[in-house]
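1st attempt posting a full record on here, be nice pls
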Amino acid sequence: MDLPKYNKSSQKGEVGITILKSLIETEFLWLLRVNHKEHDFGIDAYIDVIAEDGGVTGKSIAAQVKTGDSYFKESNNIGWVFRGKMEHLNYYLNHDIPVIIILVNESTKKAYWCLCDATKTEKAGENWKIVVPYAQELTSSAKMELEKCIGPIRDYASQLEGFWGINKVLRSSDRILFIVDKPDIEQGTYAELLAGLERLLVNPELVRHVRERVDIAIHGYNDDPRELYEIAEVRAWVIKVVKGINGWAYLLAKDDTAKFLRVLQYCNMDYKVLEECTENGRKGRRVDADLTTGERILNELFCNLNVFCEKHHISEQIAKEISGNLVEYFCGSRPPGL
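the predicted structure (as tokens):
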């Protein structure tokens, strides 16, 4: 009678998967998910790692399973030699999760494994080979070694409590102040400031909240009679960070209490001191900035703003509003159309 045939190769494969499923689910108390044959490109099953309390961890190991005497014929003093095609090796090594090779002995109902590690492979003609050690039987004693392949299982929800708490504080803040100390200015470094600013941009909600709420205070020059923008090392540092960090126009506060943007302005423009003055008990000065020398820094900040807004999917309308705020802060008046 002419009927579809259940060939011996398929039969051996099913037997091997059945043996493996029993080992994984009884010895390890983990789960084995068999890959559908039409989606089998060299991975026969996925082993899902289950925590001691029964929690499904989300960690998995991919398995290439080979069953039958033929896979136990070639051996050396370490173990059995497994040979594979180059296309499968590329597939295994590009996999996002660990891949293990499993040899199943259908007679003894035992299985042996090795991690598909590039450093453990050897060239074999047009193909490749790897040794599956005699000592690596797939029993409960191998559980710890397999867990090393997937890395630690973390309680991310608990770890995120602190992260979410900081986000909540940031979203409730009207002004976010960063303090830069004199040694950073002298050394021309701004890694901590950059990390702090990037922390504000971790999600779209925060990006929109911190718009024009950031200011920077430079500490360590209280005894220096000069204004910060008159100190050469401060000027050099400000010019450097403006070029090295994106988003200044978007992030920096532009209201009457904003400090750093004014320092940034005078570090990049020519100015003339008109008079020293005292206002509300605080010493200050009236300064006339040469706006013609500010064109370069304004253009730089505008270009920087465009890049920042495109990256964070900020509307053209908001970018236009911020541009107007920046010009008004620098020049004292808002140009038509902004």
